[in-house]
Amino acid sequence: MTSTVSTSVPGAQARTPGVHPYRELYLDLGYVPVATDLLCAFKITPRPDVPMDEAAAAVAAESSTGTWTEVDEVDRGLAYSLRARVYRIDGSVALIAYPWGLFETGSIPNILSSVVGNVFGFKAVDALKLLDMRIPEALVATFPGPAYGIEGVRGKLGVHGRALTGSTIKPKLGLSPAEHAERAYETLRGGIDTIKDDENLNSQPWSPFDERIPRTLERVRRAEEETGERKGYWANVTAADTEEMLRRTDLVAREGGRFIMVDFVTVGFAATASLRHATERLGLALHAHRAMHAVLDRHPDHGVDFLVIAKWARLLGVDHLHVGTGVGKLEGSPAAMAERRRMLTDAAAPAGGDTHFDQGWAKLRPVVPVSSGGLHPGHVPQLDAIFGQDAFYLFGGGVHGHPGGSRAGAAAVRAAVEAVAIGETLEAAARRSRELREALELWSSVRF
Q1: Does 170 qualify as catalytic in the annotation?
Q2: Confidence tier at 15 by pLDDT (50, 70, 90)
Q3: Count: domains in the chain
Q4: What is the mean pLDDT of residues 240-264?
Q5: Do 124 and 166 share a domain, yes or no?
Q6: Catalytic residue from among 43, 170, 322, 400
Q7: Is 289 a catalytic residue?
Q8: Which structural domain range is residue 381 located in?
């Protein structure tokens, strides 16, 4: 990758033409990371003619201070002290340490522009996967984290001693505001704690946001009056620009809502940060739907593992995050779900399983994991084993596809969750809950 021919220009330093060997500056296998370093674990598939150590050094260079040729100051002074260092290579995995002085504090976009920026298009690698990231606690402390966290969200709904429940209104598209509001009412009336818009329900002509929100929240209040329980509605404020999302957030607050949701990957991390600040000011909790995440995380050799995306979400300060199920229709094993739950909820998450690094969270509150995607009441014992009770279990078709309708489907979920919370089997609970019995009979053979 480098030439040995030396040239000189009168009045200038001698230069070596060709591509500069990155390993000279960015490979440091004797380096011991310090507490303030940001650490990354990359799975690297080098181009066939590039040695692994040079590919790893190229990743470190391109994601920190490097460029392809000799440049003054790169090998001395501040730029030299800010270089990333490959400090370990284990097979196809390289561990790289980044001085935290490389990054603007409190900025996910700045971290991403370096660590997962141009380097993913680098010719030296055929594929690159960011498996894990350790954000130093000194840097963690510059982010807001969730405004409410688990206890705050429970307080908004008045639910303790069992898992939290939710339902995405189905059909997810095609209902008028009046139809959407009525289905929300029936679902909440049956015993579900909160309902939500689907990720792609925004403000289409047949369901304008400014009409759907007040109609649905009025029916939420009626369900609260009739049940004596607090209820929630995650109104999807995702829009074409941040200003419109903030306007929609203000509307939800004026209409008496307690929650909003946003498709945080598609709208971007800076827009999500703006919403985080607005929701705290307005007293709203923020749900993050992960639509488009699999474009980034699903390929085993290229992209960013969802565990890392979940860490970014906690830094940004979402109150709850869709993480998958481990048992439903979406990709991801139960073990992977447990790792995600641990990373979102623990005050300090030690390395283990799929994680390469310990992760401390300073004083950031926990994020509530949200399990959703192909679930029905029969899955509740498995969800409890994976996520425990400090989580939302969300059901779409598993509520609205019930033969007795949305209210009956919600009653089946409530019966299942309450049974598991006291250690009762679903079969025992089904003997006194017709709705649960019908749900188990209908979906017991469903496999994804």
Answers
A1: yes
A2: very low
A3: 2
A4: 99
A5: no
A6: 170
A7: yes
A8: 149-443
